[in-house]
Amino acid sequence: MYIKEFIPIRRVVLLLLMLSIFASFTACSSAGGEEPEPTSGQVKKSDKVNNATTVRFMIHGYSDIFSSLANEFSSQNPDIKIELIMVENSMYDQLKAQKLSARDVEVVINFQTNPMQNDWAKGAIKPQFQQEIELGYYTDLTDMPYLKIWKQSALEDSSMYQGRVYAVPFALSALNVVFYNKKIFRDNGLEVPETWSEFINICKTLRERNIKPLIVGGKDSWPMLMISNAFVAANETDLPSFAKQLWTGERKYNDEKSLKIWKMAYDFSTYLPFDFDRIEYASIPERFANGEAAMLVDGSWQAFSIMDKNPSMELGCFTLPGYEKGTEPIQLSCKYDMMLSVNDKSPNREAALKWLEFLCAPENYKKFAEEAKVIPVADIEVDNEFIKSLAPYMKNPSSAWEHVMPVHSNVKLALFSSYVQYATLLGQYRTPEYLADSVQDEWDRILNSIN
User: Fold this and answer.
1) Contact at 8 Å (CB) between 450 and 271?
2) 48-171+336-386 topology per CATH
3) What CATH number is given for 4-22+175-333 in this structure?
4) How many Cα atoms are found within 13 Å in the side-chain-facing hemisphere of 57?
5) Structure confidence at residue 42 (pLDDT)
6) Which residues of the chain register pLDDT less than 70?
7) What burial letters (b/e) apply to 394-428, b meaning 16+ CB within 10 Å?
8) Residue 448 burial (CB < 10 Å; 0-12/13-18/19+)?
9) Strand partners, 235
10) Beta bridge partners of 85
């Protein structure tokens, strides 16, 4: 989408349609039933290899740093052996459920998906993490000593259920980061914007000077859903309250305040490249690093890929601003990756807890964060310039909208439940107001079905 007035309406509305994350966000949730407690004859004996207890740790990445830390741990604890089990992302949740049930794993990774169920969101999907907590799979970690250096808000937003902590979030990923080329900004006399109008003026100035303001990888669809989180975070300061008020009917998707979000998306889409919906996400780091555009709205993880492609690039970042200037910049809108949990049903539970406590020790967690190049969730200093530059935006990070808004189990009631369905909507919505009204109409159907 290049210039709003010269392009087909199909392109103009594509990003707006991506914002259907408002109404509902498709998520996978495995079914879970009650599982009987094992009898004494069914409980597995502690696994021993050469008189050492084996702790099986399922991971989906970062094998080098975990291997290094495992070797260091075993040298200090020769009676415990760490076995890393590498599993592809696509198979992880399914295999994790099987191994937890069979007591064939001690430490697993959970992913932040849908929020925990609550009484005001009737009929919402119950996330797999909550199901597994209720089945008694996970050890209560609330009183683990090193959790005192973890951000309390991060624990509440990610791994706490009924006031107890059942996982340690190990990495934070922000979904509302705007990367910018400092040289392009400097050469054109531009400064980091503090309001939405300033951001749009930057885009307009760059366009007038034949410089692409923005680039995104829209071909894969999900990056556009991710960006929609940034628009919500820029306009709503209390996402949990916003979600609750939508479910109770106190707020509307098309009320005056919500409409600002749809309009923001419309303005943003105006300055995207004409072919943004054909740009592969994997190509984005190199294209941006080579100066193809002045700004990139993306997840925080892209910083390291960008610098790998062009180490000499002057890379800056800020969070997507809102309509009004606040006392401080918009805080990071996050998802919490790699939440580590201990299988409470494993006979090797105590050894697993010892391994987890080792990983959470400040000096070891610092090693992990620096080598894995992730934003730390604990209160530690890391030697990375990009992460240090995020300090103004990390005072009070919050979960992204997709991890706050409950998803109704009957997602078929909403045309906006999945980006897969956007193809059926293209070309139908010519204004932000019309799209907002249509979203509210579908949302009313969901609420009516509940009542």
Assistant:
1) no
2) D-Maltodextrin-Binding Protein; domain 2 (3.40.190)
3) 3.40.190.10
4) 25
5) 39
6) 1-50, 411-429
7) beebbbbbbbbbbbbeebebbbbbbbebbeebeee
8) exposed
9) none
10) 58
Q: Both tokens of residue 267?
A: 């303005």
- Angle, alpha carbons 423-424-425 (nearest 5°): 90
Residue-level pLDDT at 50: 59
pLDDT tens-digit map of 353-399: 999 999 999 999 999 999 999 999 999 999 989 999 999 998 888 89
Identity of the residue numbered 78: P
Tell me the domain boundaries of the chain: 4-22+175-333, 48-171+336-386
